[in-house]
Amino acid sequence: MSLPLKMIFAGLDAAGKTTIYKRTMEEIDPQALEKMRPTRGIERHDYSFLDVDWSVWDLGGQESYRKKYLSRPEIFNQTKALIFVVDLQDPDRYEEAYSYFEEILRILVNVTPPPRVYVLFHKFDPDKVAALRPDFYRATKIFRRADKILGKKFTGFATSIYSESISLAIRRILIENFPDIFTEASFKKKTTSTKTKQEETTAPEQDSKEASSTVAETAEKSLEEEKIKPKPELEKTGEEETKSTEESSVATTSTEPEETMIYEEVPDLGDLAKKIPERATQVLTERMNESPEIIGVAVLTKDGKMVIGVAKSSTDEKKLSKISKVLQGLDISVYFNELGDIEYRGLGHISLDELDIYFAKISDEYAMAVLAVDVSTMMLENAQRMVKTMRDLIKTGGMGTVSETTAPRKKFSKDDYLNDLKSRLKRINGFKEL
Question: Which domain holds residue 362?
Fold first, then answer.
């Protein structure tokens, strides 16, 4: 196993760093995060996404702590990704936040290899977008000064824990930092032609069609009630200042000076989206090969169809296929909905002579089947990581959706389904011979 990658959340106190971590990585409901206590010092968390392990460092933002971090630059060594969080709802502290950000960057320029840098313009809540728009412009303008220190443009996102924007932004950061899989060259930047103010306010529909980013589209949907479509990433090129393309969606009498603007949209995953299922299949294969007990793994729909299958031999492939065919003869969704993680002698564990089958729920539409010839702690841990990887894959949208079956459904209890499934599996013709 390789060492975990290091991610740092930094920013002033009360910027929302800890709530971002808990909302996106621990998946805690926003309402439960409204009375978070301030983080004291550095909190470290272990996190895994698509079987890539991360060490997440949450740096408390009180002034006394900030001084300690800056006096100990070794804290920032081996950083893979820095996420700096700015509280858009606290405009009086933008300059203070930027000063702290700049001091961190002067440390990071000496870190090898250099980490990727991200800025989250946070608390851009859907019900406050219109009021926060001028502050959003001002904050992004202030932070664009950092490009001169970095020698390149950082990536910025407009986020809120009350919309999908924050989950998509963090997911995008995690995926972009996959080792040996995704490269800078894979992300193609898009720009629109420069326009006058009048042209921007008279062609909102054309501008909105140009926004193809997954992150941007979701952020736009969450803000649809405000009829405003902000672009999470803004850029400064030379002496040109970038502004949000919200202005192209809303006619306004802004007092901002007219100037040439270059818009750069948040890159979507593009061809990288195809590599996410590849990554998941790679993880299934690697984990299976680490455990001699595991001979095959399949991802199944709620109708029993196998959409992903990996096995150690052609004989094991046939076993997976036969199990899939049995499941397709049942309305197994009720049973699948009751499943949790893979556990020895748990609800999803079925013994067939020398073969053990472990079922686990991945989502409302998918389940996993792990075929094993024995049980061990390592085998169960690897199987559980497989389940976690597939759940991460589904969060990225990499599996699509499963259409509803039109076949009539019989009403049975989960125990009835389990007993029926066991008896059908035991009667598989030719299974013992395999």
Answer: 272-426
